[in-house]
Design goal:
The protein has about 650 residues and is α/β, with parallel strands linked by helices. The chain contains 17 helices and 28 strands. A hairpin with a 5-residue loop joins strand 3 and strand 4. The N terminus and C terminus are likely disordered.
C-alpha cells in the first residue's frame, strides 16, 4: 500500500541518516585535492577525542569521536600507494586535513576507485594545483589485436606459464613516461615472435589497476625499464629494456630459447657452435645418486647464462663431448679459437670468465655494446689511447692478450679523450692509459702517470691494480697558481681538497664553498652573489669564499652529500677538524650573511666595523656606476634628438 511504501522510505532514510552520523561521510564533508607530490583529503569533522590515524600504503583510515558525541570514521582504498610515515592529519578551522605523501610523484587520475566514496567526494578547489607534467603517452598496446598481445593480470601470466608457454610481460604504470619509449620495441618483438601459432605469449599489465602485479614485479616510475620473462618451473628472468626498438626486439629474441640448452652428442655441439657467435659448453658432473642439474656448478652456469643473454649462448652436458671432461667448460668465438677453463660454482666469477675468454681476448675498439658487456659482469676496463705510433698500439695488444680474462682492454679514439678527465689526466696528451673498475660515474679509476710506456711497466701497473696496491685517481682541474687575492672567490679544485693544502687553508680561515655546474642559469646568478659577498668580506680575517666546478672536479660525497646528477648549487661552510656544514637557506646575500654571522666568529665580530662599511662602499659604487650609465644614455638620446633624420630613418 502507499502508506506501507511511505513507511519503508522513512525507515530507509532513518537508516541512512544513522549511517551518516556514524561514519561522517556526507557528500559535503569529504573533499580532496592534489599537487605532484601530495594528496590533500579534508574531512569536515571537529574531533573531540579518540583520534586515530591508521593510513597504510594502500588505504586511507581516519577516525575520531566528534564534538557531537558520534564516532566518525573514513576508510577506503587509495587509487595508488602513499608513504604512510611521511603523511599526517591535523585539525584546521574545525576540520581535519590529511596530507598524504605520494609514493610516486605524479598526478593521480582519481583518489580512489571505491564507488561509494566517489559518490560523496568533491574536489577541494582551494587547494588544487594544475598538472604541469604534460600529458601521458598514448597507450600503444590497447590498439593491438589480441592475437599479437594480450591485456592481462598476474593470473593470466601464471595460467600461460602452466600451459607450457613462455610469457613475455611488460608491467607498467600508464602515467609514467620514463619507459614509454620501450613499448614500440616490445610491440615489434610481439609482431615478429608472438602470435597464436607460436609458444610465445606477449602480455601487458596496467600495474596501477593490478596491484598484485605492481608488488610482484616491484613496479615504480624510475629510469630502470625492464620486461619479465616467465617459464614453467623456472624463476622469472628480468630483461633490461635499453636502446632502440631494434635493440629491444633483438634482446627479447635472445630470450626465446632456454638460458641453458642440453646437448648429448658431438654433432649437437657443433651445430650449436655454428648457430651462435659466442658459444659456451659446460660439462657438469653427475653422480649415481644425484642429477647433474642439481649440482652447484649447473646452478652457477644457468645463472651466468641468464646474466649473459645476448652476449654468449650456453649449452650443457653431463658426459664427455668433444674431448671436454665434466668439471670444465669451453668457449668458442665465431666457431673457432676454443678456450678451456675449469668450471666453478660461483656464477659471477663464471660469467666474468666467459666474457674474458671471448669478448676480452684482445684489444677491441670502444663501442657502447662492449661497454655494456664488460659492465654486466664487472670486468675492469683498461682505457687505451695509443696515440699515433704503431709500436705503442702493438705493445698494448700484447698486454691485452697476456691479461685476457682479468682486465678488458678497449681502444679509444682521440675524439673520445673527454673520458681522460675522469682519471685526472690531461685530455690532449697521448699515449694515455688508465684502468676503471667499471663505466659507472662513481667507480674508482686508476691513472698511469708515467712518461715511459713499455710493455713491462704497463703489465706491472695492471698487476698492482689486480693486487689492490694502487691508489685511485680522480678528475681535477690544474691547481691554480699564485696566492689567493682577498675579496675574491677562491678557485678550488679536487687536488686542493685532497691534499694537505686544504687543511692548511681551513686552519687559517673558514671557507664558504660553493659546489656548482657552470651551465645552470641559477648557478650563474649564485656565482655573482658569491662575488659580491666575497668583496664585502675583503677586510675580514679568518673567512673566505671558494667555488668548485663539479663538472670538472671530483668531490667526496661523504663530506659533501649532494646529488651528483643535479645541477642545483650547494653551499657548505668548511672548518678545520670538522665535517662541512651545509647551508639550507635561500641563496641570497642576506641569507648567506646570516648564515656566516651565526657560524663564523670572524664575520660576527667584524660585522659592524668591517662588513657593514664595506657593503655601504659597494652600494655607493654601484649607485655611482648606475648614475653614470643613466647620464650617458640620456646624453646619447639628446644627441639623437638634435640630429636631423631623413624619412628613411638615418642621417643624410
Amino acid at each position: 500500500s502507499i502508506v506501507a511504501m511511505q513507511w519503508r522510505t522513512r525507515v530507509a532514510a532513518l537508516v541512512l541518516c544513522a549511517a551518516v552520523m556514524v561514519t561522517g561521510e556526507k557528500q559535503e564533508k569529504l573533499r580532496w585535492a592534489q599537487d605532484k607530490e601530495r594528496l590533500y583529503v579534508t574531512i569536515a569533522v571537529e574531533c573531540a577525542s579518540d583520534r586515530s590515524v591508521g593510513h597504510t600504503e594502500d588505504r586511507f583510515l581516519f577516525s575520531c569521536k566528534g564534538s557531537d558525541g558520534n564516532l566518525h570514521k573514513t576508510d577506503f582504498e587509495l587509487r595508488e600507494p602513499i608513504k604512510p610515515s611521511a603523511s599526517h592529519c591535523k585539525q584546521q578551522r574545525g576540520e581535519e586535513v590529511c596530507i598524504l605523501q605520494k609514493a610516486h610523484p605524479h598526478y593521480f587520475d582519481k583518489l580512489t576507485t571505491d564507488k561509494e566514496i566517489l559518490n560523496i567526494l568533491k574536489p577541494d578547489w582551494s587547494r588544487w594545483k594544475d598538472e604541469d607534467e604534460g600529458g601521458a603517452f598514448e597507450n600503444d598496446y590497447e590498439v593491438l589485436p589480441k592475437s599479437i598481445m594480450l591485456p592481462g593480470t598476474v593470473e593470466l601470466v601464471d595460467k600461460t606459464v602452466k600451459e607450457g608457454k613462455v610469457a613475455f610481460v611488460h608491467a607498467y604504470l600508464p602515467w609514467c613516461n620514463m619507459c614509454a619509449y620501450t613499448r614500440q620495441g616490445f610491440i615489434r618483438a610481439a609482431k615478429e615472435l608472438g602470435g597464436n601459432q607460436t609458444n610465445n605469449v606477449f602480455i601487458y599489465i596496467d600495474a596501477r589497476e593490478d596491484k598484485a602485479a605492481a608488488k610482484r614485479y616491484n613496479i615504480t616510475c624510475v629510469p630502470e625499464c625492464f620486461f619479465v620473462i616467465s617459464r614453467n618451473g623456472e624463476q622469472d628472468e628480468v630483461m633490461a629494456a635499453k636502446g632502440s626498438n631494434d635493440d629491444i626486439a633483438n634482446a627479447i629474441k635472445a630470450h626465446l630459447p632456454p638460458a641453458l640448452s642440453k646437448v648429448s652428442t658431438d654433432s649437437e655441439v657443433n651445430h650449436f657452435i655454428e648457430e651462435n657467435a659466442v658459444s659456451v659448453l659446460v660439462a657438469v658432473k653427475g653422480g649415481l645418486m644425484s642429477k647433474a642439474t642439481d649440482s652447484s656448478e649447473y646452478v652457477a652456469a644457468k645463472k651466468a647464462a641468464q646474466t649473459l643473454r645476448g652476449k654468449a649462448s650456453f649449452m650443457y652436458t653431463d658426459k664427455k663431448l668433444l674431448g671436454l671432461a665434466p668439471g670444465n667448460m669451453r668457449v668458442w668465438v665465431n666457431g673457432s679459437n676454443p678456450q678451456t677453463a675449469a668450471l666453478g660454482s660461483d656464477s659471477t666469477a663464471l660469467a666474468k670468465q666467459v666474457i674474458g675468454l671471448s669478448w676480452g681476448l684482445e684489444l677491441f675498439n670502444y663501442t657502447w655494446k662492449k661497454r655494456e658487456v664488460f659492465d654486466s659482469v664487472g670486468i675492469p676496463i683498461a682505457h687505451v689511447y695509443p696515440g699515433t705510433k704503431s709500436e705503442d698500439l702493438e705493445m698494448f695488444k700484447e698486454v691485452a692478450k697476456e691479461l685476457s680474462g682479468k682486465i678488458a682492454f678497449l681502444r679509444f679514439a682521440e675524439s673520445e679523450n673527454y673520458m681522460l678527465k675522469d682519471f685526472g689526466l690531461v685530455e690532449d696528451k697521448f699515449p694515455a692509459f688508465g684502468i676503471a673498475e667499471s663505466f659507472d660515474a662513481k667507480a674508482k679509476r686508476y691513472a698511469f702517470e708515467g712518461d715511459s710506456f713499455t710493455k713491462e711497466k704497463i703489465i706491472e701497473f695492471c698487476k698492482r691494480f689486480l693486487d689492490g696496491k694502487l691508489e685511485p685517481s680522480y678528475k681535477s682541474e690544474v691547481v691554480p697558481g699564485g696566492e689567493h687575492v682577498r675579496g675574491t672567490v677562491r678557485h678550488v679544485v679536487w687536488k686542493t681538497l685532497a691534499e694537505s693544502k686544504w687543511n692548511d687553508i681551513t686552519a687559517k680561515e673558514d671557507v664558504l664553498l660553493l659546489l656548482y655546474k657552470p651551465w645552470s642559469n641559477d648557478n650563474q646568478k649564485v656565482l655573482t652573489i658569491f662575488d659580491k659577498v666575497a668583496a664585502a668580506l675583503e677586510k675580514v680575517e679568518g673567512v673566505s669564499l671558494g667555488k668548485l666546478d663539479t663538472s670538472k672536479n671530483h668531490y667526496d660525497a661523504e663530506r659533501f652529500p649532494i646529488d651528483e646528477y643535479s645541477s642545483e648549487p650547494a653551499v657548505f661552510l668548511c672548518k678545520a677538524g670538522s665535517k662541512p656544514t651545509q647551508f639550507a637557506g635561500a641563496l641570497t646575500q642576506k641569507d648567506l650573511f646570516k648564515f656566516l654571522a651565526k657560524n663564523s666568529p670572524a664575520v660576527k665580530a667584524g660585522w659592524e666595523t668591517l662588513v657593514k662599511p664595506k657593503l655601504q662602499e659597494i652600494k655607493a659604487a654601484e649607485e655611482e656606476k648606475k648614475k653614470k650609465a643613466e647620464e650617458a644614455a640620456a646624453a646619447e638620446k639628446a644627441k639623437l634628438e638634435r640630429s636631423p633624420v631623413n624619412c628613411l630613418g638615418f642621417d643624410p
